[in-house]
Amino acid sequence: MFLPILSNWDYAFFSANLKQIIPAMSWEQHEILFQKWKNVHQQNNESLQKSFHIYQAEELIQRSPGIFVMFHLGNHMRWPIELAGLSISFDVILDREVYNRAPFLFLDLQQQMATHGTEHRFLFSDDSSILTKVRSTLNEGRHLLVFADGASGTKCDLKDDRVAISFFEGHLHLKKGIPYMSFLFRVPIYPLLDRSDKMGWGLIGIEAIRQRSCENREKYVFRALKQLYGELEILLEDDLPRWECWAYLHQNGMLKLGDETADLGRRQEPFLILPFEDRYCVFDRRFYTTQRLNLALKI
After folding, report:
1. Domain-by-domain residue ranges, the chain?
2. What number of other Cβ atoms are within 10 A of residue 145's Cβ?
């Protein structure tokens, strides 16, 4: 029989991406988490009405030039303004495609940061002279601010080179740019994560990641990415919906999806695609239910 069960693509990809990383989680739990995720990321975020503060701000101000690294956790547009409020000078590295989706949003961010008397330039990751500009920023005694999970997934020459890092029960395929710059210019990576507390939201500077004397570039890149996303995993263990990227991991290149993934799904999942009259249908072998597909059967 046919059941008129309708969903939407936002939930479908959110659930599919979650399944890749935490395969043991039930489908019912996916629905609960998706509703919580929407409350955090798609509505007027109530968290923005809370107060914001930075732990050990003086220590953060005194840090030598390096790379501040953050993630998209719901408050990510507010923290650059708060850092600028400490008179910390930094430039922001952006993915050009991400910028082009909402240029007015980023220009407004830049203006708000400038009200504190510091300059904050946007550098684009696909710029052929990006490393020259990064060197200039660091030589001026300024920091860089980068969102580790901020890539659009677009490929630019050889810049989409990635390394696989374990994450929960799955793997993420991550760009090497942040630790590569850290290694090349011999500057530390400063991970920054925020947590809710009694006063509102607090930004915490995690222990800096620095190159060890025994490490070559490849080993350092792997360890730095593993440490960065290890901190993210610890944060998300109690609050999975905070990570915005669950909804688009399939688009930003972090999931390795291809024919092997599809073949695995055909072997392990209960669904079969079958011909039905002049169309196709999906047959669920567990419950003997079918869903008709709007695809014509070519003969």
Report:
1. 46-247, 258-299
2. 24
Q: What is the DSSP string of the chain?
A: -B------HHHHHHHHHHHHH-TTS-HHHHHHHHHHHHHHHTS--GGGGS-EEETTHHHHHTPPS-EEEE--SS-TTTHHHHHHTTT--EEEEE-HHHHHHSHHHHHHHHHHHHTTT----EEETT-TTHHHHHHHHHHTT-EEEEETT-------TTTT-EEEEEETTEEEEEE-HHHHHHHHHT--EEEEEEEEETTEEEEEEPPPB---TT--HHHHHHHHHHHHHHHHHHHHTT-GGG-GGGGTTTTTT-S--SHHHHHHHHHHSSEEEEEETTEEEEEETTTTEEEEEEEEPP-
List per-residue pLDDT tens for the chain, 299 residues long: 444 555 678 898 899 999 999 999 998 999 999 999 999 887 555 555 678 999 999 999 999 999 999 999 999 999 999 999 999 999 999 999 999 999 999 999 999 999 988 889 999 999 999 999 999 999 999 999 999 998 765 555 445 689 999 999 999 999 999 999 999 999 999 999 999 888 899 999 999 999 999 999 999 999 999 999 999 999 999 999 999 999 999 888 899 876 565 555 556 678 888 888 888 888 888 888 888 887 665 54
Tokens of 113: 């940061």
CA 222 from chain centre, in angstroms, equals 17
Which one, of 127, 64, 43, 60, lies nearest residue 93 by Cα?
127
